[in-house]
Amino acid sequence: MPTNADIRLPGSHTEQASSCLLSFEFADCANDHALLSTVHLSGPVGESWLVGGDVEPVRAGAFTGLRGAEYQFLSCQANIDAKDGADGLRDTTRRLYQDLIRHVEGSRYSQPVRFWNYVPDINHLTDPADADSEAYRQFCWGRAEALENADFPLPAATAVGCADGKLHIGLLTATDAISVTHFENPRQVSAYHYPRQYGPRSPSFARASIVESNSGSLLLLSGTASIVAHESIHAGELDAQMQETAHNIDALLTSVTGSADVPHERFKPLRSRCYLRTAAERDAAERAFANALPTWPEPAIMTNDICRAELVMEIEAVFTGD
Predict the structure, then answer these.
(1) All residues at 6 or more sequence positions from 228 whose CB lies less than 8 Å from its CB, including other chains
(2) Which 8-state DSSP code applies to residue 229?
(3) In angstroms, how far is CA 28 from the centroid of its own chain?
(4) For residue 321, which of 253, 224, 233, 225 has the smallest C-alpha distance?
(5) How far apart are CA 18 and CA 21, in angstroms?
(6) Residue 236: left (phi > 0), alpha (psi -120 to 50), or beta?
(7) Predicted pLDDT at 262
(8) Could you identify which of 148, 221, 225, 304 might form a hypothetical disulfide with 314, taking C-beta atoms 3.0 to 4.6 angstroms apart as the criterion?
């Protein structure tokens, strides 16, 4: 029977009863307050991200959420009006990110930990003759404009498509009591250094982030796909893309832990999501995932478009450490 995955954020209040700071309901994402806009296919039906101690509601402009002693989560969704064309998404992204960054920088929860972004019709071209009119490129452009004058470290992030016409943004942040470190993958060009061929402004995220305290650590893997250096590999091939994605994950873990012989010695997979472009490939995706990542728990598989049209899947994950 499908279950919900619990993720306990490390902190100094582990001896206290757990409170839910943020939750994702994969199987029922039609409500007006859901961060995700997706169709759940198999695996865990949701995630609960827990902290020790109490939480309280918080509002920051268009963003709402909860905060505890050491973590805060804020999210919002905004309608994107099709009549505004590509500029509507770019402008909305810039405005929301500027508001969010301003609030985070002015609060005690000033360390960015992880973003989730769900971009409406992510591969859609407003102008078929102009590749830069693609929704994802416009989102990246607006996000980069908001970040360019901010002292804001780039954390792990996911950006996949959604079909409800809304831009969904969520951000997990932490206080200085938590150690937060961001990592790149030696097998891939840092996303923020992608060449011009991928759009006017590069994507703004790190390949992974680690949050640590005396009570333990979590490694948060960004959305990871079949990209080597900066190029998509195995266009349209599910099995090959899943294997290449697994190679990228292994390379990142080896880099983080400094152990080529036993790259998983410190961090163990706790939960994962597999975003799949085509729902009809669910069974094939389950088999491909089990073959590529045989020691991992069952993933939550869901349908979302991926940021590049030639990619058919991507994975995000959480690892628990000692």
Answers:
(1) 187, 188, 244, 248
(2) B
(3) 19
(4) 253
(5) 9
(6) left
(7) 47
(8) 225
Alpha-carbon span 134 to 128, nearest angstrom: 9
| C-beta atoms surrounding 291 within 10 Å | 12
pLDDT per position as a tens digit, 33-87: 456 667 889 999 999 999 999 999 999 999 999 999 999 999 999 998 765 666 7
Residues in the chain: 322
Longest CA span, the chain: 58
Give me the phi and psi of 15, to 5 degrees please: -80, -10
Among 7, 19, 11, smallest CA distance to 180 is for: 11
pLDDT for 2: 60
Q: Which residue has the tokens 């309901």?
A: 25
CA-to-CA distance for 285 and 190, rounded, in angstroms?
27
Give the model confidence (pLDDT) of 262-301 as tens digits.
445 679 999 999 999 999 999 999 999 999 999 999 999 9
Give buried/exposed letters for 215-231 (b at 16+ CB in 10 A, else e): eebbbbbbbbbbbbeee
Kind plus residue range of the DSSP H or E element containing 93: helix 85-105
Contacts of 15 (CB under 8 A, 6+ apart): 52
Find tokens 């250094």 and name the residue.
Answer: 193
Distance of CA 196 to the CA centre of its chain: 23
Domains, the chain, ranges and CATH? 4-321 (3.30.1330.40)
Distance CA 75, CA 70 (A): 17
- Please state, in angstroms and rounded to a whole number, the distance separating the CA atoms of residues 303 and 162: 9
Q: Using one digit for the tens of pLDDT, what is the confidence trace for 204-227?
A: 999 999 999 988 999 999 999 999
- Residue indicated by tokens 């902190």: 11
Torsion angle of C-alpha atoms 226, 231, 234, 237, degrees rounded to 10:
60
User: Is the pTM higher than 0.90?
Assistant: yes
244 three-class SS: helix
Contact 136, 122 (CB under 8 A): yes
